[in-house]
Each structure stands twice: as structure tokens, then as C-alpha cells.
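Attaching the record inline, Q. Sequence:
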Amino acid sequence: MTNILDAKRINQITTFLKSLNIKSKRFSEIIKTQDISIIKNFNQAFIHSSEDKIINYEKLEFFGDAVLRLAASNFIEKKYPHMSVGERSELRSQIVSDEWLTKLGEKIDIEKLIIKGPKALGDENSKNTIIGESTEALIGAVYKCFNSIQEINLWLDNIWEKDSEIFLKAPYKFKSKTVLQEWCQSKGLELPQYKIIEISKKNGDPKRFSCEIFIEGFKESSAFGKSHKQAETNAAKVLIEKFMAIGKI
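Structure, as predicted:
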């Protein structure tokens, strides 16, 4: 059963928690004592619903979503106190996004802890989604240790600082479709038309889909992606960079 912990699983979880390198004495003490009730809470953050319909990460993920947004708001308030509410909202949307959570999950190698049922094990399409969801559940579990966002900020602030700098230097790279749409509207042009062609049937192929962008009937750019969304985003990014190079934006 997924809710029964043996010594091997307990050591696996505590070793993983240590690897997060959260600079907190009270968090370190929890890991050291291996409090079984707390370890069970963390174990639940790694259980997918395909393995256990009752004990899984869904409730912790729901909780972690709110915790993550609060911790990110706290980070932005400390790091960028003069930033407007609109700018804060835009930045926060980037540093708590599903893509960001998946990236964080891959960085901490959370997948080695996740327990999936047979159906999810063979589903490559859901792999990144499950990594992101489990990471969000982990954040919820860390919060529940103390009912405080302190450990979340101690863990994530340095990561957010680097990621925020990257985003603020070139925001169009992260919201290219929105930027392109706003540019068209400002020029009184029709909205961009995205034409998707499936090139490959292979899941995960970075060139599985091709996207062409047309503005006012003229093809302006094209790019590949492993999904419809990624192909569209890449094509929009290519077009924005093209327009920037010739001074249109």
C-alpha cells in the first residue's frame, strides 16, 4: 500500500528533502527526527491518483497552489517593492506557471519519488504534467510542516531571483503570442493567424508540429515544437525577434 512506509522509502524521502537544501533549522530537525506523520505527508505528495484514488497528491497540490502564489507575492514585494500591481501580476504568473513548476520538478529530480499506477506509467504525454503537479503538492507539504511560508521562501527565493531577472530582461520570450497580438492591435492589423501542421507522430519530438504565422494574409514566420502550443509560441517568438531586428517593435 502507498500509505505504508518502510525504512527504504523513509530514507529515500528524507534524503530527497535534504537535497532541497532549505536553510532552516526547524526543517532540518524534522528531517533528522524522521517524524513518521510528517514523512507520510510528504509521501502523499509523491503519489499519483492512478496509483491510489484516495491517498494521493491532489489535495496537497490544491493547497500548494495557494501557498505558491502567496510565497511568490512575498518574494516580489521584497525584491521589487516599487513594481506596479500589474507588473507584479505579470511576473508572478511566470514564476508560478505550470511550465515553471515542471522545470523546478525536473531540477530537483522529483520524478524518482513519484509513485504511479500502470496506466500513468506508460503515458509520456502526462509525464511533465505529473512532475509539475507533484512539485506543487510538495510545496503544500512543506508549508504544512509549520503553517508558514517561511521555508517556501527560503527554498525558492534564490531560484525566483534568477528566473525573474531572465524574464524581466526579455519578457516577450515568455509571452510571445500576447506581445504579437498586442502589436497587431496597436497597428490596426488583423490578429495573427496560426497554421499548424503535424510533421511527426512521435511523442516528444521537438519537430512534431510546424507552425506558420500569417498576418494580413502574408506568411511572416514559422517554427517547430513538440506540441501545438510550443510550435505557436516558438513561431511568435521568431516573428517578434524579426520585427525587433528591423525596428518594427
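The CA atoms of residues 156 and 183 lie 34 Å apart. The domain at 7-169 is CATH 1.10.1520.10 (Ribonuclease iii, N-terminal Endonuclease Domain; Chain A).

More tomorrow.
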